[in-house]
Amino acid sequence: MGNASRPFRRIAYFLCLLSVLLLTEGKKPVKPKCPAWCTCTKDNALCENARSIPRSVPPDVISLSFVRSAFTKIPEGSFLLTPSLQLLLFTSNTFDVISDDAFMGLPHLEYLFIENNSIKSISRNTFRGLKSLIHLDLRGNAFNCDCKLKWLVEWLGSTNATVEDIYCESPPEYKKRKINSLSSKEFDCIITEFEVFQSLPYQSLSVDTFSYMNDEHVVIAQPFTGKCIFLEWDHVEVMFRNYDNITGTSTVVCKPIVIESQLYVIVAQLFGGSHIYKRDIFANKFIKIQDIEILKIRKPNDIETFRIAEDWYFVVADSSKAGFTTVYKWNGNGFYSHQSLHAWYRDTDVEFLEIAGKPHLILSSSSQRPVIYQWNKGTNEFVKRFDIQDMEDAYAVKHFRVKEDVYICLTRFIGDSKVMKWGGSAFLDLQRMPSRGSMVFQPLQIRNYQYAILGSDYSFTQVYYWDAEKAKFVKFQELNIQAPRSFIHVSIDKRDFLFASSFKGTTLIYKHVRVDLSA
């Protein structure tokens, strides 16, 4: 506010105080319409030590003042019976709440003084309807400058009324700061949470999502029924529904891959071999087109699909003592064995990622530290680079990115799971999380929010949120999931969902919701 407005404010304030003093002069009060604790004249009313907002003040009163009153709240519509008010003053009272529409029905109010009271916050629609307001004084109140006050900061920036300087009393980081000079950008009022949206009455292991025929789909592996269950979004019922199955034996992974608009599904099984299916759009069903060699893939545990240059691949992590973790390549008609990475290592997980623009695989094993392979352009094969140091056997490794930095989440069943960061030549320790029966530590990005979810067979699943300022994860939420094995983010109809598989309970679908604390 400029210096030119200060004389005007002083005059307005003086006029207000003068009106209070005039009320005590020898004017004859209008007794029939004036409460016992108020002094009323033709145009003015002074209420001292009032126990509540009076309803019997003369309707043609222009000025109304409350001093040292005992009421604790200004309710909605408190002044509907005094529409002629032009000046309203509250000073040295004890109320701490002003409700929405407290001053509704005062189209002529020009001066509003709410000073030296016990107010900590004001409802966001407190001043709604004050079309003639030209001066507001909120000094001497202990404002808590949290998200509930964000609306006031925005209102101060848009109102035409002159507002005296007011200050924050709390929280500590805002103490003594001028509210008039705050920006709404300083208030981080949007929080998120996961809430249960839908429950699927079956156990599951892997969950995957894929885009096909201009829609999003989900496929879930059911180990006990041996099925791959396919779900789609019902736009009418607003829920997920089953539309097809692939039936097998002890299915552990159902991995979709879309190549030139054709959908294929790699079905990994513990018994009866693993197979590849093709979606026949004319017959509207899945047809088995290929078996995966059983001599190499004996006990599949994870499948990863990826593309290098123009070629499509998938790799199967084999956890048997005699199996081979093997890379398969698409040749236009089917997939053929391209490279066996190593045998006898009992691999439990495989992760594809790019480091410094080069394709890599990370293999996790129950018998050794995680191993990193790098793609060799000359031989078109993966070559072993190094182990991840300072890490004992990890059940799984999953990666995520924050801007240009590469991170990995390493899962350990018992002990400490880890977050590590790529340092240019090796992954370096960043953070440890206690694991209690953990078989999944999955990073997920939903919109602009980066999470990591650490499952547990013996306790609650922990959801962590990436704190950009601290450059690490912080505890965010606990989820009650029985023996979780995988998590996946699905985005449909501007809604975001988290699918959580369960080896011992029901498969759960959570909705990712945003909550505005300033609302």
UniProtKB/TrEMBL annotation:
It comes from the Eukaryota. One of its GO terms (cellular component) is synapse. Its main location: cytoplasm. Gene3D superfamilies: Ribonuclease Inhibitor. It is found in: Cytoplasm; Secreted; Synapse. Keywords: Cytoplasm, Glycoprotein, Leucine-rich repeat, Repeat, Secreted, Signal, Synapse. This is Leucine-rich glioma-inactivated protein 1. It comes from Coturnix japonica (Japanese quail). The gene is LGI1.
